[in-house]
Design goal:
The structure is a homodimer of 147-residue chains.
Chain A: H1 10-30, H2 36-47, H3 53-60, H4 64-76, E1 80-85, E2 88-96, H5 98-118, H6 124-140
Antiparallel strand pairs in A: 1-2
Helix pairs in contact in A: 1-5, 2-5, 3-4
The structure holds a DNA duplex (23 and 23 nucleotides).
Amino acid sequence: MNDVKVTATIAFRLGTLGALVGDRFAERLAVRDLKPKHVGLMALLESGAAASQLDVAKLMHVAPSLLVSLADHLEARGAVKRERDPEDRRKQILALTDQGLALLAECTALARALDAELVDGLSPEEEAGLRKVLRRVAASVGLPTPD
Amino acid sequence: MNDVKVTATIAFRLGTLGALVGDRFAERLAVRDLKPKHVGLMALLESGAAASQLDVAKLMHVAPSLLVSLADHLEARGAVKRERDPEDRRKQILALTDQGLALLAECTALARALDAELVDGLSPEEEAGLRKVLRRVAASVGLPTPD
DNA sequence: TATTGTTATACTCTATAACTATA
DNA sequence: TATAGTTATAGAGTATAACAATA
């Protein structure tokens, strides 16, 4: 009989590893008073994939009410601005400011530093393979992969 | 200048993908009234890596108080049993019952079904590479990898 | 006194529901 | 009436702190 252990499954390992890595990223973002979801929002705006709050909320798989507070927080530090859509004044068009772009770059640097620790001990080929496959899996489950 | 996007980092992708996959796993476990952490606890007991509640809590990176409720839940469904250590009666020795072993096997089957969906579209070599590298990264950040 | 486990409490994150403005 | 966004409220999950039993 096949006795692959549950801890060896991709599902279980992605879950535990994702939680741990997410926590580490969150710790480092905390010094800038940000959370991973703020970074996700900024990245989505930078990619131009969406602009209205509802569209962004759907892509991020979060409730519209949560998006309000994420946007509030980023707006308060000047990283994003909100403008009413002239063609439909119900819509708030979110846009990254220059400050937001700079902040996003700082967060990216933090993530890349974490990456360097995570791939320590892997060969360049293994690292490249991991990046490629993670992207494929992310895309296959419907996550935005604008890279 | 180097403009790798934050969403393309391993850290960000593991975080988002891990959250999504963890949620999917949790959904399927819910029909058995379990959560991923219950599975993690059973797997740890099955591996024999630890037995006292405090040791298990440390390995799982959860608070001792949380371990009490996880163990309570599993004990109530007959999946684990608690026995006082005769040599140190402060310690509760947790052990998986036969029912627990069967329940763990069911959860493993659920995880493997999820795996099949996640690797759909990957070549066997890519899948094997992903498993290998995830295990290496998990081990490098201190996660138990008894496989 | 220190340690193991337990209970009580509080906090963080996020969703659901109610509401406002615009269409 | 329906939709975009906002505010108010509630729930899940987890940690911290206080406590009891044993060492």
